[in-house]
Amino acid sequence: MKQVTRTDAPHPLNCSETKRSFYEDLYDETGTQVKKRWNVVRDALSEMSGHHCAYCGKKAKVEVDHFFPKNKRAAPYLAYCWENLIPACHDCNQRKLAFFPRSLSGKRIIESCAEGVVPHDLLYEKSTIMEIASNDRLLDPTFDRVEEHLTLDCEFFCYNSHTKIGEITKERFFGEAFERNLEKLSHLAKKLVSEKVTVDILNPIFDLYGDEFYLRAYYEYWYLENAEGRMR
């Protein structure tokens, strides 16, 4: 899972007055779907993550994932909250679907700029909300330290979870298909090391390859194994 440093919100999500007007006009003509205003936001998220999915780490055309979903049962009044938006590939966005912690179920959470627009239970302050949901939420790679919850086990082609958050995240994103792909990447990286393909030659390939995040991790793993005489 790719650690991502949160950047400043792009326009128009950096303007409380503009966002308040969005929340006053939240739904489309059906009254069920939050209006999309994503183009500039999607571009900013993609830049923020280096054009990688923050969940699986693949280089991809990212989509706007709402960490706390924008549907009516979850957190529609965080739909334009920059800190609630995650860059995700299509597969991870679909895999995550409308995951919402039970600890927050039934609570209306709003951004402070929407105060007075709708009644609410909680004003959004990220640290507070994440603490309330600390036992039943997913890992947010722009907020949590990934390594405290999940570490990649290169020997066994999987993630090891260290917390309940890590366990829930592993179950949601990193199942059998993911582990099979890791095994293939491991074999490829091992062959590259055995053929003495150096990292300076590989860097341009890493930048192009969709699984660069994991291929690089396995290359480094096998390079060290080889250097210490453990590669067979």
TrEMBL record:
Residues folding into a coiled coil are none
> What Pfam family is a match, any one?
HNH
Molecular-function annotations in GO: endonuclease activity; nucleic acid binding; zinc ion binding
Domain HNH nuclease span(s) in chain numbering: 40-94
Output the superkingdom of the source species. Answer: Bacteria
Q: What is this protein called?
A: HNH nuclease domain-containing protein
